[in-house]
Specification:
Blueprint (H helix, E strand, L loop, with lengths): L19 H13 L15 H12 L6 H7 L13 H28 L1
Length: 114
């Protein structure tokens, strides 16, 4: 699927989880690795729901919502991002910012190739 082909009716998306685009975005998400599941031995597909949600935002070009999703996905794993201790908050924010930047840079290269 090319990003130019994204505008299907009802914003439906048909991207296979073994497609090159999905796997590339999965790599970024797995580096982000909310709550360190992959780092601690979870399978590579552990965050595929997050990868899918991010890809849907990219396909709709809802780029402003990506950072919020990265923050709010903590809820999916049973954690409230507001509960992060002050001593870890700066590192957490840097991780969010870096991942957001990585996703937008990756998206720009994909979009420019089409």
């Amino acid at each position: 699927m090319e990003f130019e082909d994204k505008a299907k009716e009802k914003n439906e998306m048909n991207v296979s989880k073994d497609s090159k685009i999905f796997l590339e975005l999965r790599e970024i998400v797995n580096r982000f690795d909310p709550i360190s599941l992959v780092k601690n031995g979870a399978p590579d597909n552990e965050h595929d729901d997050l990868t899918t949600a991010l890809l849907e935002l990219l396909c709709k070009e809802s780029l402003d919502e990506i950072r919020d999703l990265l923050i709010n996905c903590e809820d999916w794993y049973g954690y409230d991002p507001n509960d992060i201790k002050e001593e870890y908050r700066e590192r957490y924010n840097q991780k969010i910012d870096q991942t957001h930047k990585d996703i937008l840079n990756w998206y720009a290269t994909k979009k420019n190739k089409n």
